[in-house]
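INFO batch 0412 | record 1 of 1 | parsing
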Amino acid sequence: MSPFRIGFGYDIHKLVEKRPLILGGVELPHHKGLLGHSDADCLSHAIADALLGAAGLPDIGHFFPDDNPTYKDINSQEILKTVLKEIKKSQLTIVNIDTTILAEKPKLAPYFEQMKATIANSLELTVYQIGIKATTTEQIGPIGLEEAIAAYAVCLLEKRP
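INFO prediction complete | emitting tokens
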């Protein structure tokens, strides 16, 4: 049996007024933010689901149900820290994570290094183990119409001997 496990995650949140825009644990200047029970950081949520999936564990909603008031406005970096504990319990280590954010605006590239540093800190990784990219949907669909932001994540885990 291979010591490697691959996981895939996806998340999308609606953009609304009067909410901060948080991606990868970084608050970005923007006139709208993401709506959700937590801080609605779709990048961190996609990463969490990729890691949990690779470990064969239930998804983020199992650990942080959106009908539990305990998790109202929870910082998604705390979610990642909890996921890391679950990964370690499963005798797995994170090899790398790669992500893509889908957003029409704002421009995200200037914030990638800060996002990587924040996520790396939460998951006890180096910034070199994390890839972050962004693309638009060419003004197509809810993302292109600036109604939502989404993120994809893939990860590689390795079973510890």
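INFO post-check: The CA atoms of residues 14 and 35 lie 6 Å apart.
INFO record closed
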